[in-house]
Structures are given as structure tokens and as C-alpha cells.
Amino acid sequence: MGSGKRGLITAAVTVVCAVTVLAAPGTAFAAPSPSPSTSPSSSSSSSTAVSNSDLEAVRQRLEKLYHAAAVATDEYNAAEEAAEKQSAEIVALAKRIVKGQERLAALKKRAGAAAAAQYRSGGLPDEAKLMLSDDPQAFLDGTGRVLQGQRATKGLLAEMTRIQQDLELYAKDASAQWKKLEAGRKAKAAAQKKIEKQIKAAEQLESRLEDEEKERLAELEKEAAYKAQTAWLDSGILEDIKGEASEQGRKAVEYATEQLGKPYEWGAEGPKTYDCSGLTSQAWASAGQGIPRTSQEQWKQLKRIDIEDMRPGDLIIYNGDASHVAMYIGDGAIIHAPRPGRTVTVAGAGSMPILGVVRPDA
């Protein structure tokens, strides 16, 4: 069977498994038991074979490196989100400045016309104008209009002053936003360097392993996730989790399910690649609910829910620093974009250390 066909079948099976998890509330998600780790003596007769304890040290080191990359990714995403907001604010301020300048120019033109009219009247005192007038009543009527004009002129000058003050304020605000934008650019560049450094170190570490050692390492990763998930399920937590998805939550889960098998890429929001918070934010955007871009801001800004009360569509935040996020899909399972080198997948909700749960549509 061709590799392309096998890939399609694998993706189809994965989607079916995910849908089954959603449709069968009585079945708790548990990763399949990992095959027993192969001992060095049985896997290779070479005296240079890497022991399981050494591979476990590698696994823990890789976990730390990818965790550091996830933290830096959140920093990068936060800087990018802030830059977008600051750029939008600068554009809005620029539009206000242009409108203010146009209004000010129009007011100056009116003020100039009023000054010219006063000059043409000769600047004579009102008593002299009354004596020289052929129609005293018309003069008096005109005097009333002059008084109205004077009041209008005062209002015009006051408006000119106010607009000038507004323009000065807009200019200061724009300058401040430019400084923030520049600081954000530097923060974003620094975060990118951190990400690339951590991922490069992880890739170099993995590249030094033989194929057989990589397979054993993968088994150790599965075993660690399995043990964590099993311990979480053994606590009896699923007996208390009975919430049903809201309409928006169901749409968000459907979107996330459709992304299964797509590669992880830091800073990505789809449609071809995702990082963890890129997946959750886009899933909820597809359901008509905008949420913060990063896992840390999702943890800070969204309503927190007790684990016992969570329902499909809720977001589970992981690690003490809120550096990872996944979408709960029911029956002890999540969909998430794990890390570089992995794809969007279904996993056990308890396979990583849970910080808490948030609800976008609370």
C-alpha cells in the first residue's frame, strides 16, 4: 500500500477516534498501554547502546527544552498581538490628525473671511455708522447681526483652540504608540531567538540518537503520558464531569477535530499549521467567540471553571506558567497541538500537569 494512501487511512482513523470520543460519553479516554521498554541487552549487543535511564534523561531534557520554547512562543505571540493593536491605534490616530487638520484649515478660512469683512466695514465706531446711515432701523438690525457674528467668532476661535489641543494630544499618543511598537518589535525578535535556540538544541539532541533509540524514546514518552493519564482517571474525576457542550462549544470542537493531523508550528494560527493557542483561539473564532491569542492571556482573561464542571469546548491550561493549552472534547480527552515535530492530535486530558480550566463562552 502506498505511503500516501496509508497516511489518508491513518488520518481518517484518527478523526473517527476523536468523533467516537465525542459521541460515547460512557467511555473514558485512556492512551493504549505502551509496549514494555526494551532493555539495552535485548535491543543491541553493542557496548555503546544507550540505557533506558539515559534515554529517560534525554526525554526529560527534551521536555524542558520544548517547554522553554513554548514559553518563548507565548512571549512572541503576545508581542505580535500587541504590535497589531498598536499599529491599529497609530492608524486611527493618523486618521484623527488628518480630520483635525482639515477641520482646522476650514475654521481658519472662516476666521479669515470674518476678519476681511470687518476690515471692509472701515472699522468705524457704531455711533458714527448710525449717524451716517440712511436707514437707522436697518443699521440697528444689522448691529444685532454683528453681535451674533461676534458671538459666532468667539465660538469659532474656541473650537480652533480645542482642535489644536486635540492635535497636540494625538501627536503625543502616536509618538507613545510608536515607542511601544518598537519595544514590542525588539521583544518579538528576542522571543524568536529564544524559540529557535531551544528547538535547535532539542533537534540536535534527538539527532544524536540512533533510529532504535528514537523508537525507545518515543515509547518512554508514551509511557509517561499514559501513567499521568491513568493516575488522573484513577482519581475518579470523570464521575463528576458530566457537562454537555454549548452550541458554540460544539462548533469549536468540530473545528479543532477538523485540524487533526496538521503540523505544529510556533506562532501559527492555521489554516495549515498551528501552535497550541493558535489552535484554540481559531477554533473559538470559528464559533463566533473571540478570545486572547496566547495561553497565558487565555488563563488570565477567560472565566475559570472547576475541573468537575468542565464541558467539551472548555480550554485546559497546563503547567504552572500557563505555557500550554488544549481543548477538552469530553470523556477525559483533549485535542491539542503538542510541540515542534508533532501534529494536532487527541490525547488524555490528564497526561500533562493541569493548571486549571477556562470557559470562552461563560
Description:
The chain has 362 residues and is α+β, with helices and mostly antiparallel strands. The protein is built from 9 helices and 6 strands, in the order αααααααααββββββ. Strands 1-6-2-3-4-5 form a 6-stranded antiparallel β-sheet. The longest helix has 72 residues, at 136-207. Mean pLDDT is 78; it is low at 1-27, 36-47 and 127-132.
Number of E strands: 6
Mean pLDDT: 78
Q: Identify low-pLDDT runs.
A: 1-27, 36-47, 127-132
Helix tally equals: 9
Shape: elongated
Q: What's the helical proportion of residues? A: 55-70%
**Rg, alpha carbons:** 34 Å
User: How do the strands of the widest beta sheet line up side by side?
Assistant: 1-6-2-3-4-5
Derived from helix and strand composition plus strand pairing, the structural class reads alpha+beta
Sheet bearing the most strands, described?
A: 6 strands, antiparallel
Distance between the termini: 48 Å
Order of helices and strands: HHHHHHHHHEEEEEE
Strand content: 5-15%
Keywords:
disordered N terminus; 9 helices; alpha+beta; six-stranded antiparallel beta sheet; elongated; 362 residues; single chain
Describe the protein's topology:
Layout lengths: L2 H21 L16 H4 L8 H69 L5 H7 L3 H72 L3 H24 L12 H12 L17 H11 L8 H7 L1 E3 L9 E4 L5 E7 L2 E4 L8 E4 L5 E6 L3
Antiparallel strand pairs: 1-6, 2-3, 2-6, 3-4, 4-5
Helix pairs in contact: 3-5, 3-6, 4-5, 7-8
Short description:
By secondary structure, the chain is an alpha+beta fold.
